Amino acid sequence: MIVGPASAQKPFWTRRRITDLSCGSILALLALLGLFPYLIALLVSFKDDAEYAQSAWLPTLPFHFENWTSAWNQINLYWVNSLIVAGVVTLALLALSSVAGFVFARYAFPGNGLLFFLIIIMIAVPSVINLVPLFLLVKNLHLIDTLWALIVPYTVGGLYPSVYLLRNSIRAINDEMFEAARVDGASGPQMYWFIVLPLSLPIMGTVIMTQLTGVWNEYIWAFLVINDSSKRTIGTGLQFFTNEQTTSFGPLFAGYLLASVPLLIAFTFLSRYFVAGIQAGTGK
Amino acid sequence: MSLFSTDIRAGKGGRPPSAQVTYQRRLPFLVRLLRAWPFYLALAPTLVLVGVFTYYTTAQGIQMSFYSSNNESVNFFVGLDNYRTLLSDTIFWNGFKNLLKYLAYGLTVGWFFPFVAAELLISLSSLRWQLIFRTALLLPMAFPVAVVGFTWQALYNADPSNQGVFNVILGDIGLGGLEHNWLGDPKTALYCLMFMGFPYIAGLVFLLLLGGLQNIPQEILEAAAIDGCGRLRRIAAIDLPLLGDQFRLLFMLTLIGFPTGGAITLLLVTNGGPAFATMVPIVWLIQSGITAGNFGYAAAMGNCLFLIAVLCSLLFLGAQQLRSRLSLALPELPEGEGR
Description:
heterodimer; A: MetI-like fold; B: MetI-like fold; 2 domains; two-stranded antiparallel sheet; 17 helices; 67% helix; disordered N terminus; disordered C terminus
């Protein structure tokens, strides 16, 4: 990895430069291929029908920003619903899993190992076995077509990896910290509030990102339990939006891109947690 | 309060267990159980949620699969009838043919491009450019699944008055003869679904393989370079063997997810494709089971898919065991890397 200063005698086409340029150009091509659908979507989102007919994949003037405003008017509801669901699920998960993680990690009591095992074994159990009975339970609780039908099952599904992550990270906290707090007469809840919570912030970032991407990506369950158009989240909402927008591509693509904005923001500014969240979600 | 503060688990990190803990262990089980009530109280919300929405429902699902129900209020015990019907449900089992195609494609093409991209990325000499390309390659990951599906659907669109971009481009470059109703033709629909997301770099496979490659110790690579080991030789002799753990983990995850895969078809061609060409078991479960109200039958399908997933992972674990036994039987080869 040591790169010397380029001296005058050195030829321009060093071996390293050739490697860099060839690898870099292939990588650029691969990145372009991966982003191709979204670049096309971005281009087309500014076109009206006449401009699309004129050229589907080259930019044309004038830009039609009204595609974006009309799309926003149709999908902002799904955005808000998804944010509500993701917010409630995340808060519930952080509260439940940090308390459970603390108790599992720091205290000895009968059943500690067994209860923890019963929770984390579910990471490896395919959730399909639960699909039908869970649907019936939610239906019998009269939660169909309410956001609770999404919030409760998402929270339960998120508990398995979150409890596992929180418990392991709390276990890794230095014993001396708790020892010192105990000597100073701190109670369990105090240790939870002043030691566990502040030190668990990074792992909580991972949990938050996992839930945000999870709620934005989940489709099958939302498809089953939400029919009311005012309760749709991003996945099922876009399905409805697509069926409505059959005639022109401009607003359609603008809507798709708008639906992606929260995840794109998270990816840009919280890339570390985003990637950690993807990897933490490998269990499911 | 005193319970919270005295029960701190001791003995972690090599410290000898404190006297208090030893004393606690001698208490009778029932006393320990009663004295631990604050912990059970703290765990109660989590345990109740998991108990009701996972364990109770799973038990219900197993029970339900032995009942017939046209809607949830009419239930008859039918024994194994649901499973018997399932065995002769050709649509369900034909769905596995599609899944196997997905699997074969995913394990070859779906792993090839991420591996190539990871190798190319670590070959760059500038860390800054590595980071830039890594971000660009991972960016498609930030689009929601529904957006990915619907964007590709719009690109494939073949409505004559509203041609999708793929057909327009084919026409523009003089290949109008290749224009096609991509998702509408049973012959091409499945392959078009597979092609979605090409080149499949933005995802877990790339992340894990890249992490693995970046963790290969520099000394090994330098020693190999001194021995005159070229780029391709290095991939075959060093990189691939050292990525064993990553490949095993990915394979395991693929197998667990295999029986419930292909759900994206639900999004795009809601009836499992033209003429069932893209039907997969999970979509059939939802259509013929849940949407149609045959909950007992749907539960049987779910249990069957679950069993297949468990069998797949057991098979994999068994193969792992066999492999480690065999490698124990073989003499250890001397390692040339000096590590």
